[in-house]
Design a protein that fits this description.
The structure is a single chain. The chain is an all-alpha fold and 71 residues long. 76% of the residues lie in helices and 0% in strands. The relative contact order is 0.15.
Length: 71
């Protein structure tokens, strides 16, 4: 079983090493959706989109979060 907090820490470390990697922001955003941390998820997806504006999947996730009303 994967420890979500452990996974989050790994991703945070990877993002610190590779701050321009949109895929990492997308992964941590998905993790935050699972843990219902919607504000953090939204910020992560926004950053992923900023780094890779062609990722329509991230754009859809961001839209669906906006509909859920998480701040």
């Amino acid at each position: 079983k994967i420890d979500i907090k452990e996974e989050e820490q790994k991703l945070i470390i990877e993002i610190a090493k590779n701050p321009k990697n949109a895929k990492l922001y997308k992964e941590i955003g998905e993790l935050y959706v699972k843990t219902r941390e919607l504000g953090d998820a939204r910020e992560s997806f926004k950053k992923a989109l900023e780094l890779d504006s062609s990722d329509s999947e991230v754009e859809e996730k961001l839209k669906s979060l906006s509909m859920k009303g998480g701040v």
